[in-house]
Amino acid sequence: MTWFIERYRNSRLVKWTTNSTFLAVVIHILIMEVPSWLHRAPANERSFVTQRAEFRCESLPEGSHVCLDGDSEIRVRFNGSTRNIEVLRGKVSFVVQNDTKPFDVWAARVLLHDLSTGFVVSRQQPNLTRVTVTEGRVRIVAPADTDLRSQFERGEVENAWKSAPELQKFDQMEYDEIGRQWHALPQLTARQLSSLLAFEVGRIDLHDRTLAESLKELARYQDPPIFKCSAATGDTRLDGEFLFNDLDGLLAALKFQYHIHHATSGSGSTKVITLTRPSDKAGEIQPRC
């Protein structure tokens, strides 16, 4: 045992650990590397997906709230220092819980940084990403390059926000991926904002939409029958809301509120619903609304 202790005292390990230069190197490594070890701690990662005729609202692990419109998908990745979300497709609303960790959202070539607020990100149209602020403020970078994408994935995009433009409640912007440019859209009114968020409860808001526009919106959630109507009937402006899976309710409302009657022929994929008002003439009916 005495021999073992003596060999240990004379070993290189003991000599290195008593050397001041060696200790300084060790301390430097710990200072530089430990933060990155912590950052690479196991992340809480999952995806949320909705089918076409579906909507979904969820609370995230730290208390933020998200709602997905039909045919939407997001990827959520939280760890000890970041809250990162990627919008892959569809339309998603966010209400962000105040926290010391940044809340950043990537959508195509758009990168958003939350400032304790609410917003909607839409990727429903090809090559277009739209951002609408529903409460508070956000900062936004578009187009975001591959370097910024890497920083986003590492949770290290803090410097990007220093000169990024800021959007406030009712502000909207749209990024064109083909033209690689973004532009501001007209501010929403409170009524328009309410209409935008109707999907959170599975509804389509008909306020200031024509009948033809409402039927087109319905087709986002299901394969509806073929609708025929006159141009005047198709241009009738509606109001109110209806559940996107309640076609019978919509037809009943059209008859009660707007005196638009319907007649059904065929079935399945050949089903046709003809919408008419008393003033319509047979020759005015078009193949599609």
Any overview of this molecule?
The chain is an alpha+beta fold. The chain folds into three domains: 2-39, no CATH class; 44-190, Jelly Rolls (Sandwich); 202-284, Phage tail protein beta-alpha-beta fold. 26% of the residues lie in helices and 33% in strands. It is built from eight helices and 18 strands. It has helices at 2-9, 12-17, 20-39, 146-154, 190-196, 211-218, 231-234, 247-258; strands spanning 44-49, 56-59, 65-68, 73-78, 83-95, 103-107, 110-114, 118-123, 128-135, 137-141, 166-168, 172-176, 181-185, 203-205, 226-229, 241-243, 261-265, 272-276. Strands 1, 2, 3, 4, 5, 6, 7, 8, 9, 10, 11, 12 and 13 form a 13-stranded mixed β-sheet that branches. The protein has a three-stranded mixed β-sheet with strand order 15-18-17. Strand 6 and strand 7 form a beta hairpin. It is elongated and about 65 Å long. It starts with a helix and ends in a 13-residue tail after the last strand. The model is unreliable at 1-18 and 21-41 (pLDDT under 50).
